[in-house]
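Tokens for chain A. Residues wanted.
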């Protein structure tokens, strides 16, 4: 799951990125509202964590702009503003949850996970497809109970396809996931890893289909 973290405090942003990345999320940081808007135009995200105290605009203004674009994203406000009126205003402007600073990282992580589960009914702690089982939060991938050894990039591609099993995932979205692990990507990196995974997964009852012009779709084969 891709998270856009909009936070101008570099120390806090680094800590949140480290914690959330360790839990299997792909985190992109924006330190200004204008850069966040650029990212939202160029990339796909599954959730936004939004600080209200941004250097170039008020976070509530940015929240309004995001909701005006009708992006179907859950948004969690993270801010030092903790009055009841602030909370009410945030929710009224389109936030799905609201946490005040200071906060416990474990609580934030739990609430992000709960928000994703609430907004994406298909996001589970365990995902089973064919003979494959993925435990996203533990980074565990197995075949009929036995660990499946993959490289970090292969795992990253398979994870995003499994999390969106039955849905088309764009090539750009997969490239973003790979770039989170390593910026040194070749132009055909996605095709290379898709090809490798196809060969590995076919015997496990899992198929990766190419949807021309759109991306890739992971599904169980008919004989499983």
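Reply:
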């Amino acid at each position: 799951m891709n998270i856009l973290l909009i936070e101008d405090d570099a120390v806090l942003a680094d800590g949140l990125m480290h914690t959330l990345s360790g839990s299997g999320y792909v985190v992109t940081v924006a330190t200004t509202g204008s850069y966040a808007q650029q990212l939202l135009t160029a990339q796909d995200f599954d959730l936004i964590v939004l600080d209200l105290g941004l250097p170039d605009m008020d976070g509530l203004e940015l929240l309004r702009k995001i909701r005006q674009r009708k992006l179907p994203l859950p948004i969690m406000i993270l801010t030092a503003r903790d009055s009841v009126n602030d909370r009410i205003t945030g929710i009224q402007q389109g936030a799905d949850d609201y946490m005040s600073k200071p906060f416990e990282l474990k609580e934030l992580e739990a609430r992000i996970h709960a928000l994703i589960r609430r907004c994406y009914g298909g996001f589970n702690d365990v995902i089973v497809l064919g003979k494959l089982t993925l435990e996203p939060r533990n980074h565990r991938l197995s075949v009929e109970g036995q660990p499946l050894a993959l490289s970090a990039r292969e795992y990253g591609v398979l994870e995003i396809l499994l999390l969106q099993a039955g849905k088309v995932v764009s090539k750009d979205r997969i490239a973003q996931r790979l770039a989170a692990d390593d910026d040194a990507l070749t132009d055909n990196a996605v095709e290379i890893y898709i090809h490798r995974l196809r060969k590995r997964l076919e015997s496990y009852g899992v198929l990766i289909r190419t949807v021309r012009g759109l991306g890739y779709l992971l599904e169980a084969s008919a004989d499983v």
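The chain has a mean pLDDT of 85. Residues 10 and 107 are 20 Å apart (CA to CA).
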